[in-house]
Structure formats: C-alpha cells, structure tokens
Design a protein that fits this description.
Elements: E1 36-39, H1 42-53, E2 58-60, E3 67-71, H2 75-85, E4 94-96, H3 100-106, E5 107-108, H4 111-120, E6 125-131, E7 147-151, H5 156-163, E8 169-170, H6 185-192, E9 198-201, E10 212-215, E11 222-225, H7 231-238, E12 242-243, E13 264-266, E14 277-280, E15 293-296, H8 303-319, E16 324-327, H9 336-347
Parallel strand pairs: 1-9, 2-9, 4-7, 6-10, 11-12, 13-16, 14-15, 14-16
Antiparallel strand pairs: 2-3, 3-8, 4-8, 5-6, 6-7, 10-11
C-alpha cells in the first residue's frame, strides 16, 4: 500500500480514497478500480501522465469543468473511458492538446479555425475540423466521424499534464453519463470512485460551464454548443454563426435530457412555492421565505460568477432531497446563453 499525503498548489492535503494500485485495469469491465485522489503537484502530475501512458483513466481539472482523460490514440483506453462514464452510446470525444502544433497534426485548420485558435486558445473553446484519420485520435474517440473536436485548455494543471505526454488526451466531463458536470475533485469522486485510476485535485474549476463548440469543418462555421466563450465574442471574428440543424446529431452529447439532477427543474420561476429549493440569480423572487434552501448563482447578477457556481449549486440543492428546484430567470446574453442551455437540458423530461 502507498499512502500519499501531498500538498499541491491547492494547499490541501491529498486524500486517498482507496488503497493503491495494482496494474492499470483497462478492460472497462465491472472490476472495481482503486481510485486515488492526489493534490495536483509536480509529482502527482508525472504520476498521472504515467497512468495515461499505460492506458489508464485520470480525472483532471480544466478551467471549465473536470475532465476524465484517456489517451486518444488507444481504443482500449477510450473504450474503458466510455464504460467508466456509462455513456449509453459512443459519443465523439474532445481531444485535448498542449499546443497548436499538436492540434494541427490532428486535423485540417482552415482560416476560420486558425483565427479562432489564435484568439481563444488556450481557453474554453473547442474547434471541430476535418480529421486527419491517420494521426492522434482513434476512430472510437471520434465515434467514426470524419471530423475531430479539439481543445487547448488553459488550466495550469491540464496544461502541465498535456505537456508531459506525447499523445492527445480525450476528456469528456468527469461525471456519470447524463449527470451534472463536476467542478471539484469531490464531485468527480462522488460519481466515479472505483471506476477510474486517479483524480488530480486542482481545486474548483473557475469557469464552471463546458467549452463552447464551433464546427469549422464546413464553409459556414456553426455553433454546436454554447459555453465558456460567449457567442458574441466568437462572432466578432467569424461573423454570424449558423445554428446546428436540430434534426441532426451534430454534437451527439447535446441530448435533450442531460446534466440532470434528481429533482424536477422549474425554469424562469418568478415566485417560489412551498418546499421548493431555489436557485436564484440577482434579487430573490417572491415567496423565497418558503424555499427549503436557497443558493444564489450571483447576488449581484454577474453571469460569469453564475456560470462558475451553476453545477456545484445544482448538486447542492439536489442533495437536499427537494422534489423541485425553482430557477429564477437568467438573461440569455453572453454566458447566460450557455447557462440557460444547460438548465433547459436539466429540466427536460427523462
Ligand atoms: O469544457 C469541456 O469541453 C469539457 C472539458 C473536460 O474539456 N469537456 C466536455 O466533453 O464537455 P463532453 O464529452 O462532455 O462533450 C463533448 C461534446 C459532445 O457534445 C460531443 O458530441 C461533441 O463534443 N463532439 C465531439 N466530437 C465532435 C465532432 N467531431 N463533431 C461534433 N461534435 C463533437
Ligand atoms: Mg458532459
């Protein structure tokens, strides 16, 4: 047994949830893994890189949400990742890279893709381009598509991890499929302990909402998912973005019911009913005193702060056992577009 109590840049001691560590189990079967949680210091990041290299699964912080990483060029590792998350079908994954050169090896960057990369990387933007089928990402990671989604995260721990390996790392959000995305190592542990090898604890993800996805593989760039970079910022470079066709599974992870808590979600609530939990934004609505619990995404009405708090607060309110979470109206501009999108999915019937 190895017990590690390290202090990383979070200043908190590492927690070890389980004793370590036989050979990495990449079979994706029901066998329980020994999941370690380590504060993300230099040694832990080197450890994580070795686990990835061997085909294992590592959760790590990004500036948006925690990702669950596997090497993108290894179909066995990618299959194990799908199994650990319980993704119902094989959804294409985002390949994370350290630099633009690595990105360009994975796919064809046209002028639009390049100017977006220059403007927003590293950062919460994912760019879809025509895939170079022979390089970097296995077919399973792309779910057989002829395009590939690529992202260069800005979180220092993600960047150090990606610098330490010589392959791209696919990383969906590190939650059970369909569940609320994780913004802390604790959230990841709740969902995936026993199913993955290692969790790097780098503190809370600040952005709080997934990357924006723009498809540049066709003539007109399209917005596939709103996210951490507001549409308005992207359109300054691309001009008006086309919408993804609704009948098309263009970003298959964007299923209607997604990001789902157990509680029912009541959107745009201008009042609070007895016993409901309240997810507020700005001033509290009428009837707030009847709420069983209140979390305010941003008392001062700041959308960046609201995005950062969204998933943690949804989890916290859900944990109270409330039957319904009333959600105050949130404007659909800037990051509000992505916040409203995720809440709509959380509210969808399932
Ligand atoms: O912020 C993020 O993007 C986080 C962090 C961990 O980086 N990752 C994330 O991954 O949100 P995931 O797997 O939860 O969402 C990836 C989305 C899915 O909706 C998937 O369908 C879409 O990207 N996607 C992946 N490859 C695609 C492709 N070639 N064309 C269109 N959509 C694609
Ligand atoms: Mg996800």
């Amino acid at each position: 047994m190895r017990f590690r109590a390290r202090r990383g840049h979070t200043g908190r001691p590492a927690i070890t949830v389980a004793k370590v560590a036989g050979p990495v189990n990449v079979s994706g079967d029901k066998e329980k893994k020994q999941t370690r949680i380590l504060a993300a210091d230099v040694a832990a990041i080197a450890d994580a890189a070795a686990v990835l290299r061997a085909g294992g699964l590592v959760a790590f912080p990004t500036e948006t949400v925690y990702g669950l990483g596997a090497r993108a060029d290894d179909p066995r590792a990618v299959a194990a990742l799908y199994a650990a998350k319980g993704r119902p079908s094989f959804n294409p994954l985002i390949a994370h890279v350290h630099g633009l050169d690595a990105a360009k090896r994975l796919g064809d960057f046209n002028a639009t893709a390049l100017s977006l990369a220059e403007a927003f990387w590293p950062g919460p933007l994912t760019i879809v381009v025509k895939a170079n089928q022979n390089e970097g990402t296995c077919e399973l990671a792309r779910a057989g598509l002829d395009t590939v989604a690529i992202r260069m995260p800005s979180h220092p721990v993600a960047r150090e991890l990606l610098a330490a390996v010589d392959f791209p790392v696919v990383a969906p959000s590190a939650n059970r499929s369909g569940h609320v995305s994780p913004t802390t190592a604790g959230h990841v542990a709740e969902d995936l302990t026993g199913k993955i090898d290692l969790i790097l604890d780098g503190g809370a993800s600040e952005g709080g909402i997934e990357s924006t996805i723009v498809d540049c593989s066709r003539e007109t760039p399209r917005l596939l998912r709103s996210g951490g970079v507001a549409r308005e910022e992207i359109e300054k470079i691309t001009g008006p973005l086309a919408a993804a066709a609704t009948d098309e599974v263009s970003a298959p992870g964007m299923m209607t019911s997604h990001y789902a808590p157990k509680a029912r979600i009541r959107l745009d609530a201008s009042d609070v009913r007895k016993g409901e939990a309240l997810l507020a934004f700005g001033a509290l609505p009428a009837g707030s005193e009847q709420a069983r619990t209140i979390r305010n995404l941003s008392a001062r009405g700041d959308l960046t702060e609201a995005a950062s708090n969204l998933y943690a607060y949804l989890r916290a309110l859900d944990a109270t056992g409330a039957g319904t979470i009333a959600v105050a109206p949130i404007p659909g501009i800037g990051l509000g577009e992505a916040i409203r999108d995720r809440l709509k999915r959380a509210a969808a019937p399932r």
